[in-house]
Structures are given as structure tokens and as C-alpha cells.
Amino acid sequence: MTPTAIAWRVLALAQWREQPLRVIVTVLVIALGVSLSAAVYLVNESALGEFGQATRRLVGEADLIVRGGDPGFDEGVYARIARLEGVRQASAVLELDVALPDQRQTLPLLGVDPLRAGAIQPQLLGEVGGSLFELFEPDAVYLSAEAAEWLGVGRGDSFEVFVGGGMRRLRVIGLLSTEAYPRRLALMDIASAQWLFDRVGRIQRVDLRLEPGTSVAALRRALEPLLPVGVRVVEPSLERDRAMTVTRAYRINLNMLALVSLLTGSFLVFSTQSLAVLRRRPALGLLRAIGLRRAELQRALIAEGLLLGGAGALLGVIGGQLVAWGVLEWLRGDFGAGQITGGEPPRQIDWLSLLTFFAMGTGVASVGAWAPALEAARRPPAMALRAGDAEPALAPLRSALPALLLLALGIGLALLPATAGIPLFGYGAIAALLLGAVLLVPRIAGVVLARAPAPGSVAAALALARLRGSLGQSTVTLAAIIVSFSLMVAMAIMVHSFRESFEQWLAQTLPAPIQWRVATGNDTASIDTVDQTRIAALDGVQAVQFQRSLQVLLDAAHPPVALLARDPTPGETRPALALVGAELAPAPGQRRAWVSEAIVDLYGAKRGGTLTLPLGGRSVPFTVAGVFRDYGRSTGAIVIVRGDYIALTGDTSATEGSVWVAPRAGVDAVAAALRSVGPRPGFIEVRSSDEIRALSLAAFDRAFAITYGLEAVAVAIGLLGIGFASSSNALARRAEFGMLRHVGLRRRDVLAMLAAEGLLISAIGVLYGLLVGLGLSIILVHVVNRQSFHWSVDLALPFGELLSVSALLVLAAAATALLAGRRVLRGEAVRAVREDW
Amino acid sequence: MNSETVLEVRALTRRYRTSSEPVLDGIDFVLRRGEYVAIMGESGVGKSTLLNLLAGLDRPDGGRILFMGQDLTALDDDALTLLRRRSFGFVFQAFHVLTYLSVRQNVALPLELLGVDAATAAQRVDAMLAATGLAGLGARYARELSGGELQRVAIARALVHRPALLLADEPTGNLDPRTAASILALLREQLRLAGGAGLLITHSEAAAATADRVLRLDGRSLMPLPRSAQRA
What we know:
The complex is a heterodimer.
Chain A: H1 3-18, H2 20-59, E1 64-67, E2 73-74, H3 76-82, E3 87-98, E4 107-112, H4 114-120, H5 122-125, E5 140-144, H6 145-151, E6 158-163, E7 166-176, E8 186-189, H7 190-196, E9 202-203, E10 205-210, H8 216-223, E11 232-234, H9 236-279, H10 281-289, H11 294-330, H12 351-378, H13 381-384, H14 401-414, H15 424-439, H16 441-451, H17 458-469, H18 471-509, E12 514-517, H19 529-536, E13 541-552, E14 561-566, E15 579-580, E16 592-596, H20 597-603, E17 610-615, E18 618-628, E19 637-641, H21 642-649, E20 656-661, H22 667-675, E21 685-688, H23 689-703, H24 705-732, H25 734-742, H26 747-789, H27 799-825, H28 829-832
Parallel strand pairs in A: 4-8, 5-7, 14-19, 16-18
Antiparallel strand pairs in A: 1-10, 1-11, 2-9, 3-4, 3-10, 5-8, 6-7, 12-20, 12-21, 13-14, 13-20, 15-18, 16-19, 17-18
Helix pairs in contact in A: 1-2, 1-11, 2-9, 2-11, 2-12, 9-12, 9-18, 9-24, 11-12, 14-15, 15-26, 16-18, 17-26, 18-23, 18-24, 18-26, 24-27, 26-27
Chain B: E1 5-14, E2 24-32, E3 36-40, H1 47-54, E4 62-67, E5 70-71, H2 77-87, E6 88-92, H3 103-114, H4 118-131, H5 147-159, E7 165-169, H6 177-194, E8 197-201, H7 205-208, E9 213-217, E10 222-224, H8 227-231
Parallel strand pairs in B: 3-8, 3-9, 6-7, 7-8
Antiparallel strand pairs in B: 1-2, 1-4, 4-5, 9-10
């Protein structure tokens, strides 16, 4: 056995024998951090893997894609494109999200020319082969296995779809295997789809395969002059990545949150190992004196941390895999926000990912163990052997310069923009500020303790003197509390601020008591003017507001943007919006548009500027009259007055709206009457604004449930840190307690001293943690959140929550100090003063 | 230096930043094979500092320390550590018995560090436990032992690997006179059997009386104490 192994065995044995619970809990905290991180990653990867496979099937082997927004474009364009030199194969596609009776979600439908599409999407069309000609029948549709299961239909069955204000029936002639397409999809002949869905002559997309040797850039240049307004050339890779781009910010934030728990675990290892090193200082000195080299001791101590991390990481990856399977099996991969769903429990274990998370767990633990190990190895053995050498060598940390530099770096990073849509510098700012704040702890604690007034009682005076004399130990204890508590505070403030702003936004955007809509995001169902008149004339209806929602593609590099053509709120000149900042006064003859903050961030729109929208087959300039908050869409939304939209497009249909109820009419009665509008009851979904508010807030809370869970983890780790520090201190100070008992302090005096120490140190930690947490929350709210989701949030402090958690932590610190002291004081005072007991 | 010299100290100086005066200033002395020397002095005169310097646990500001002809001041930390592992044994006032190891494990620790095979180590530990009156106590832990027994464990651990030099710092400072006497006798006897030289730091005249010669440290010099003074 090597000297390092001998030392490691001796030290690990010591840890285990002295505080087995502490070892177990440290291992479990690492396991928790690793399992959360691994589970989030595995679920996202699984869901995205399926999503990615689906997108790849749809894009197929296209070299270029010509794409328009919701209204689509004239199929004559297709003929012109197909004739271009260098185009080997062109395939026109009609893409629709079809509204279905009794379903809130839509069915994605692809209308293709099966003969041409087979060359571009061979894997998708490959299974159609035998029924190719059957697919040309006007109501024939192929369904993916996932869609058939969702609709409860099989081959030979039929199902109804909403088209405009009426209904049509489709016949299932075959099923696509999950291998061919893993998500919901209906496949039709393009001509049948155009006819069935009243889109004759319109298409959304043309997929192109190029002749070998054709320059993509050159063809692109040739294509662009042929394209109508609002139609753009898109690289297939962009198309494939777009769906993932939409959820990327959410996924990265979720991953970051999970990593936070791993980070706090690392600080717990740091705290555990630092205090363990202090407690075993004479033993470490002895090992050095009898011949253990500095590097051997350091390696042994790091190995101790590695063992804790390794055990935790092993449990963590097993737990993470199980949680991932559970979330995929029972929640369809949804962590609550509904951002990413789908994905099957993986049939094969992703060993590489699990190994990476195992390495991360052991890595953070060894990083946590590294500093105390280095300090212990550098401590001269002669000093370590002396009684009372329990103060860590934290003298270098007492310089405020590194801390101030880190804080300055954090502030600087917070001012930088996002990188590829990800707030990397924002996360960097949080890490730098947190580390800077921790490094400043010895200085802060020193100043606060030095200025604390002299207490009246002996116990409190002893507690204060002890803390003043052991600033290094106090720093280690405080570091773990501050890291976990400040992160918890930051997350709590961020979520509370978001919730407050969200609630306010709901109130501003739901001015009427009743809201109605046809299936969300659908392209096929709408309310015509006859039904609009019917709604307005319903008994008890005082006023109505209609809206037509559609998607427009402003830039090929970004996902489509929601265009909301909305009637002005009754009695107003514009629709009700949650405006941010001032609004431009209307000018005669000016078409006005209001843009969400995402349009400002992503497209550089600004108040007073001009925004060109593809409407009615031409580019129409709109003046940006104001910027509004939109917590519903992070990819951007534009509101225009519906009158302008109708004048430009001739489209009078509506997809949603608001209804004001007459003074003596009941909301429920009006809602019931509304539900009867359309080809069949349930064609439009009707909800009261109160109901929407309640549902939206419930969805919000569900989306942030994982955040609340992680907050709880952070608090639990903070409490554990306090508990460990108390028990370590108490164990290390048995001789001191014995001496105090000898000189006449009663047992309860010693306990009062311990409680006072616990209260004082945790109060400093909690107050400082609150301050640091507030700083971090400002970065989270104004930098990370804004850069990730492109919406602003007003900072709001959850005073009640922060106060109660602060009080809980301070009281828990006093209580654990008392408990640890009671346990140690059970022994005889005489025995306690002996060195080797 | 002749082959009989174990330790030779020349003009040894050590000063601390906290004081303008050096703690040790130009100390010279020689320790020969098989010799057992006691160093006495008032508290704070630099006895423990001297011991730490001789053990390579601290660095002098001037002078040389030659152990078996090798200049300790020229060695790096690793080389000093390996030298301690192989050639030095330590006994401290505060025992420093590892509480979470049994008596047997504590005594075996130096042999394990030297890589002695398990069978040989077991034989030598058994022999040492018997020699120090600890036979039958090998499975016990520190909390189950008296102060005298703890110091016996420390002596057994210090000598089990037959070091060339034993360094003892107030080994009886925590013991009653009767137990102290038995411990000193044991230390002397075991050192003789091991064939090593010993250096005892003490302010106890009774302890010093067990040494072959006694030196008095006053910071600037290490002077022999006449036999008459030793007995006084």
C-alpha cells in the first residue's frame, strides 16, 4: 500500500468513525445535484432526439427550402422555381395545423406530391409505397402511429376536421411507423389538401434538391427575385435546428438550475472538508512528522473528497437515469412548463452521458476538497501539532482585492450581450459575483464582529470573543450558508418578480370578462363574418373584439413571428396591451403596429421606426407605435389594428376574441351561448378571464415547480451546512467546553454561548446572503431572463418568504448549535479537557 | 564528523518575525551513536524550536544540521519527510495517538509507511507492544487507555521502525511522577535496545537525570550542565 493510500485509509476511517451521518449526507447532496442535472439532460436529450428525428424526416434531403408564412404563397412560384437551372428536384408542400373536434391541440398535416416528395423525404414517404395511388383520393390520409393513437383511429377509420366555419371528414388509408415519423403527423396528397382545406393554388414551402456542383449561394441569389413578399430561402440546417432553438433558452436555464444544486454540493464538500481538516489538524501534523510527504497528504485528502464525490456521483447517475425514465414514462418528458414534450424512455443507456455526469460529480467534489487539502498540506507540521491550531490559513483571503476584482468582473460581464441567444456572460456574471461575495466574507465578518457591541451576558461575550478569534472557521461556515442561501434568495426573487409581472400582464391583456378562441395555433378553423355578427348579437353581449392570429416569417434566421390583427378595445383607439414605456401618438394616414420586446431584441425594431410586414402579397410599412410585454411568446409578436389587416388582405375571418357582458347579463349564460357558435358545440373554446387567469397562474406555478424544488434543495443544503459546522465545532471544542465547565460555567451557560454563536454567525450569513442574493437576482431578472426569453420583468421582493426562510435558517443554526453542544456536553468535563479524547 | 556522530549542529540560528531577537543564535552541539542527551531550559527559551529544526519540521535562518553526515538544511521538504519516515521517531507531550485507530494500528503506522510487509510488521508490532507493556491492549482505542498507556503507545510507535534518532518533547509533561518515571525508564531501555540516539527536551530535572548528559539552552548557547547541578 502506498503512503498516500495509507494516509487516505487513516483519514477516511476517521471521517467515517467520527461523523458517519455527515459523510452520508454529503454523499447524498452530491447525489442529488448529479441526479437532477443528469435527469434534466437525459429527458431533454430524449425529447429533443425525437423532435430532431421528426424535423429531419420533414426536411429530408432538401438542399434548400423556400418558405412563406401562414397565408402561404401562390403555387405558380413553384413552377418558376422548378424550372431554374441547377434545380434537380422541387417539391411543393402545404403545411397546416388542423383543428379537430374535442381536441385542444392541433394535428400537423403535410400536403405533398407523393411522387416528387419521395425523392426528397424518402424515409417519410418510403412506407407509403404500396398505397401511393390510393393517396391521390381526395379524403385519403396517412397518419403517423403517434397521431393514430392520439385520435383513437386505425386504418380504414375516418375522423373529422374543422375547416373554416365547417367540418370535413378524412379517411385513414395507412399508418406510418414510429421509425418513419415519431410524432403526430397526417400526410395527404397536396392537391387533395388544397381542395379540402380551401387553399386551392396556395402552398407554404418548396423543397429543393440541387444538381451536383450547383452553388447554393448562386442559386439563392437566382431564387430571391422570384419570390413574393414574405417568402424566404432557408437553409435546411436552420429549419432542422429551429424547433430546438425555440426551446433552447428554456433548456439551458433548466440545465443551469440543475447545475446550481451541483455547485452548492461542491461548497458543502468544501465546508465539510475544511472543517474536517481543522478538526484533524494534530493528526495531519503527526502524519507529516512521522514521514508523510506534503504531496502524499494532499493527494490523500483530495482522494477523500473524491471518494465522497464518487459515491455521490454514482448514486446520482443511477438516480438521474431512474428520474429520467420516470419523467419520460409518466410525464412525457415535461418538467412542468410544457416547453418540451415527447420522447420515449431510452431503450439503451447513454453510458457516455452518465459517465460525464459521474465525472462532473466527482470533479466538483474534488474541487471542493482541493483548497482544504492544499491548505492542510502547506501547514507546517510543527504548527499543526500544537494544540489550538484550529484556525485555517485563510490569511490570503483577508485581502479584499481579489474579491473586489471578481465583483467588478461580474458587473462587467452582466453588461455584455447574449452569445448566440444564450446569456453566457450573464451566467458568468453570477459565478463571478458569487465567488467575489464569498471571498469578501472574511473581511465583512471581521468588520461586523469587530464593531459588534459588548454583550451583557458572559455567554454572549464568550460567543462574540470566540467568533472574533476564529474568523477563518467562521468564514468556512459562512461560505456554505451564503452560497446556498444567496442562490435561493436570487431564485425566489426572480420567480416572485416574474409571477407578479405575469399576473399584472394577465390583468392588462384580459380586459373583457370572456375570451374565446378556435384551437390554438390552427391554420384551418376560423369564424366568418356571419358568426361574428351572431356573436355580437348574442343575448347579454355588450361589446365584442375580434382577432385574427397568423404566423409571418420576417427573417429566415429566426422562427416565425405571431401577427395578431386585433380590433381596438371598445371605446379606445387601439387594442389593450401591456405597454412598456411611452406610446407614439397616432398620426393621420399612418398604419400603426405594436411590437413585443422580442421583436425589439431580435429584429432591432424601435418605437417610431418602420416595420415592414408581408400582407396581401406585398410589403406594407407600419409605424412602430409602442412596445409591449408578451409572456406568451418568446419568439415575438406584432399587433396591428384588424381594420388595417382586412383592408390589406381582405381576410375577414377571426380566430379568437373578447366579449364584454351587459350589466345585468350573467357571464356563464353568455359563455354558454357562445359555445353554440360554429358547426358544432365546442368548435370554439370559451373561458372566463378569471378562469384563464387561474389556469395561467397554475401553469406558471407548474412550470416553476422545479425551481421551487431546487430552492428547497438550496435551503436544505444551507441548513445541512449549518448543522455540520455546529457538530464539527462542538466536537473540536470538547476540551474548551471542559475547561469552561472547570472554571465555573454551568452546562446551560455553555449551551447559551453556543446558541449565541449560532445566532450571530447565521444572522451575519443570512443578512449577507440576502444582500448577495438580491444582487444575483438583478442579474437573473434583467440579464439572464431578458436575454433568454426576450421579455422584461419588474423586480419585486417576496418579503414574507424571505423573512420566514431567514428566520428559519437563523433559528435552525441556533438549534443545531444547541443540539450539537448538548451531545458533546453529555461527557464528563474532566475527560473533555484531556487532549486525546 | 566521525562515523560515531549521529547529529552535528553548527551555528544554528532561528528568528521569528514577531521578535527582533533571535530565538536561537549560533547553537553548536554533537550527538553520538547510542547517546541519550537531555536539553533543559526555561519556558520560551527555544527548546521546542530547536527540536523542530532538528526534525526538519522547521527551517533555520542560519547554520547547519548534519544528520549522519547529511546536511538537513540543504534538503527539500520531500527529502526531509522521507528522512523522518526512515530514521526519526517522535514522542510528544500531547501523545498524539490517533483516536480512530486501535493501539495496534497506531503502532503499525510507521512500518506501513515504510512498506514493511504485513507479516514482518505484525511480528515487530507484537514485540514492541510486549516490550512497552501493552500486550493484550492492541485492539483498544485511545479513549479506553490511561495517560501512561497512551504515552507507551506513542513510544512504541516512535521506536517500532528502529529509528537512528529519537526526538522526545516533554514526554512526561502530562503524567504523574510515578508514571513519568516508568515511562522514562521504558524510553531509555527501548532506545538502548533499538541502538539509536535520543534527544530529550524537558524542563523536568528528574527526566533529565535519566540522560547520559544534560545540556542547558539559554538561546545563545547550549552548555553542558555539571553532574552536580543535575542532581540538585
